[in-house]
What does this fold into?
Amino acid sequence: MSARAFAATSDVTLRAAEPRDAPACRDLDRRCFPPEVAYSLAGFQVLCAESAVRIIAENEGKVVGMIFAEADAEQGAGLIVTVDVDPAHRRRGVGTQLMDEAEKQLQALGMRQVLLHFYTPHGEALRLYRGRGYVLKGKLSSYYGPGRDALLMVKTLG
Ligand SMILES: CC(C)(COP(=O)(O)OP(=O)(O)OC[C@H]1O[C@@H](n2cnc3c(N)ncnc32)[C@H](O)[C@@H]1OP(=O)(O)O)[C@@H](O)C(=O)NCCC(=O)NCCS
It folds into this structure.
């Protein structure tokens, strides 16, 4: 995928993530999740290079948001791996733009459903997902480590 911009607002520009973005993505993830939950640099090197959907939100040349998703062609289901917005840039619609673009790209890849794991201590994300039509599919106890559950949520596209 090229580094073309997908969309822009006065605040952020969306573009495809590239391998060079991995350190900034790792740093952003550390600002959004506790260290034991955040992805490693090696994890972001793979995500930035290989994810079916890999989108960066930039503000003045800085990575302030990102979303990564996988696409399972056999199941026709996409899986959002992570969506992060820098705390200083929240509640301005950046998360919504990232989710809009990721769902659009997954649909273009032939996905009929999108799955995600909701990190239960982050109630704000649940409001974002519910508002976009994601519904609860199950609970994964201690998915993020002892006492940190995940809720599996799903949305039908189209
Ligand atoms: C969840 C997250 C991505 C949302 O990003 P954002 O750019 O602030 O989201 P938006 O501005 O597009 O918000 C869209 C809607 O989500 C809901 N929402 C988002 N943050 C909220 C908060 N702190 N409190 C209440 N509702 C919230 C609101 O309904 C909001 O619409 P509104 O602002 O018109 O009321 C961001 O808070 C984040 O990165 N959190 C930490 C990482 C995380 O938990 N990611 C999800 C993994 S499970």
